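S1.2 Input.
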Amino acid sequence: MRVAARTSSFAFAGSDVDIRDIGKKLNVDTVLEGSIRKSGDKSRITAQLIKIEDGYHLWSESYDRDYSDIFKIQDEISAAIMASLKVHLLGEPAQQVVTDRTHNMDTFSVYLIGKERLALLGKDNIEAAIKKLEESIRIESDFAPAHVTLARAWLMLEREPSGPEKEQVDEVVIPAIERAIELSPNLPEATA
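S1.3 Output.
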């Protein structure tokens, strides 16, 4: 199964382009689209799998949840969508999806800011990302994805003009990856 990059697919967010055209531009056979609506402490998340060939739905589901624990909702619905996609696209029986998430909103918020800064590229943004990722780890040292992203940020910084030397980078990257693997041996980003 090929999955189009988030940056490619997000280019169509909020647009009125026909789903069949979007699928052709992304070079995919199906598109998973969804929406989130919130009312007070309640949220309704809807996900739909659409076949690009004819524009018809292969699958659609709505999830009504209390908004009190957004991370639990995210894990639960991601697992449900993955299980349904495996059944509809691959014909496989559903299996539980294991996630590596934090339930600490501060940790996750700071981590996401770090990831966004890292995506902007350039030495200043990478350095800002490193500070945010380090802050995320200070808040919750057992959040494996923050360790992996911190290692990635240092590797990116090494490639920048007047970036740090390999030895200095290795002093951060190696322990960060080792810690991530210790915390979550099956985390694909850490293994990669």
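S1.4 Remarks. The CA atoms of residues 29 and 52 lie 5 Å apart.
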